[in-house]
Amino acid sequence: MNLDVAFAPLIPLIPLIALGVAGAVVAALCVLGRTRGAWLRAGAIACLLLALANPSFTREDRETLTNILPVVVDRSGSQTLDGRGAQTDEVRRQVEARLQGLPNTEVRWIEAGQDGTSADGTELFAALRNALADVPPERVAGALFVTDGVVHDAPADARDLGFAAPVHTLVTGRPDERDRRVALTLSPRFGIVGQTQRVGFRVHETGFQGGRPVPVVVRRDGEEIERFEAFPGEETTFDAPISHAGVNFIEIEAETAPGEITAVNNRAVLPIDGVREKLRVLLVSGEPHAGERTWRNLLKADASVDLVHFTILRPPDKQDGTPINELSLIAFPTRELFAQKIDEFDLIIFDRYARQGILPIIYFENIARYVRNGGAVLVASGPDYAEPGSLFETPLAQVLPAEPMGGVLERAFKAELSPVGRKHPVTRGLPGSETTPPSWAPWFRMVDSRMHEGESVLNGPDERPLLVLAREEKGRVALLLSDHAWLWARGFDGGGPHVDLLRRLSHWLMQEPDLEEEALRAKATGRTIVFERQTLKDEAAPVEVTLPSGATRRIELTEAEPGLWRGELETPELGLHRAVDGTFSTLVNVGPPNPREFTEVTSTAARMTAIANATGGSVRRVVADAGDDVSVPRVVQVAAGARAFGSDWIGVRQADASVVRGIGILPVFAGVLGLLLLLGAFAAAWAREGR
């Protein structure tokens, strides 16, 4: 219970002050003039002023509130290393015993980091703020942390805590820990496919002596590409080759040293996005025809394609008497294109091309060799493929997957997906293919042919091959046995998916990774990894996933659509995951490539020392230099501002927070009592003056 005096003036404060000053002057003049009854008159004036000030006695009934003591227990990834988890459990058990006898104190246990490694590392103070969101600052008696000291959100200013009380830390781990880690110093994000990027790193060692060179292995997408030695503390650089479009995972792994607390941070991962330069396409149209501009418009609309297009308007056998010096035609640079610069092209398209004496036979040998070495050729044929002078009568026939039978079918038909075509990424899911027959416009001409290799993904009448795809050593070949694809582009009878088909076809030929017919892919969204197995087979093998810690998971795949199988994994870890299915392997990164939680894992008191000093708290290890025994200091209550730690004890503030349960008010000059006081004061002054 608290007693106090409160004032509620009956008149405004300024007039009350003026009356007080005037009353004081009158009382002073009476006293100095030795007027009879001067002191009684001064008392009467004072009573009048007090009555106007309206004083009252107040009584507050208060209930003392309990102190709140948060204990934050670090359960992050680094706390699982080197027996720290067992130490943490023992520290909690002992702290619970120490706090049982602490009077008027509510202990709040906060388990932080249990859901896995945070992308921003160990965030103990964020967990503390969340737990104390409903607690007034004056009720907080202090804070106690049980951690290995690897904390990434310790505030630089104690005022950011939101309360004024000592912060103590009990550090798990051993003082003589040894660890080796790899830190990136030069980490480019992008690279040109076929070129290299300079990568830099540094090997750091804690608890080692001597500084001997450390063996280091560099891998790209899981395959070793380089091996060398690096000196601890010195920057080492190397050139990483960018082999393909998309993410190229560069791994730098240092040899594990004896006695290390973990090898997780011996590896640094750098994802570099491979970006293609302009894709160079050579389009050769054998003659002007209705569908000639379909290919040109499609390729020119693709910003990633650099197109070189030639149309043969005047073959050598055409003689019209026009002098050569008056012709405005550009001579076809056959030697430059097919002998000197052929390897600079990513794709060569022959559109309605037949032998016309323009390309010597030896150039077709060059084209076949270009395909075997990794190039791509597309033959979009018409009747020219079945007539004398066909490309199949050249050395290019060595890589062409279908042989013309000498006939051309001239009747309306709708191209249909073959069983393989329903699974192949070039034709799978083409708009309109979901119905039978497909809901796209018919074509009216195709070359009758016989396949001898490759796969037909589109069929014509009587299941004849219409679009044939084939691989030839390192390169690829496609044969489109109709010249009526332009009908779809012109919107004839509703048109068809010419853009989807022809664009996918050209990018498959240029070995776009997303269009591989046999591939294993993985994509991470949050903690969920989706595995996709593209295959032309009737089943897909399970995927074995290796987590960053070395643990493994087995994922069964189910068919999501023809040719595409999927499976999911909710991973408990951040970092680089490896997936293999016996044939293919892939890598996928969850969260940051190198989580902060495992960047530096040796236990330390340094990160919590500043906040402990600023709040009057302490930082101490629970395991001595020798031995495995865990020792926890006593916990005692101390007054605010008093020293909060000793050699074998730590202190928490004894908060004085309370809540008012009731208030009583007794006015002094209200009612009969106030009237009697005033009348008595003035009557006494009058009586003394009258004598």
UniProtKB/TrEMBL annotation:
It comes from Methylopila turkensis. PANTHER family: BLL2462 PROTEIN. The lineage of its organism: Bacteria, Pseudomonadati, Pseudomonadota, Alphaproteobacteria, Hyphomicrobiales. This is Membrane protein. The keyword Transmembrane applies. It comes from the Bacteria. Keywords: Membrane, Transmembrane, Transmembrane helix. Gene3D superfamilies: 3.40.50.880. Signal peptide: none annotated. The chain crosses the membrane at residues 6-32, 39-57, 663-687.
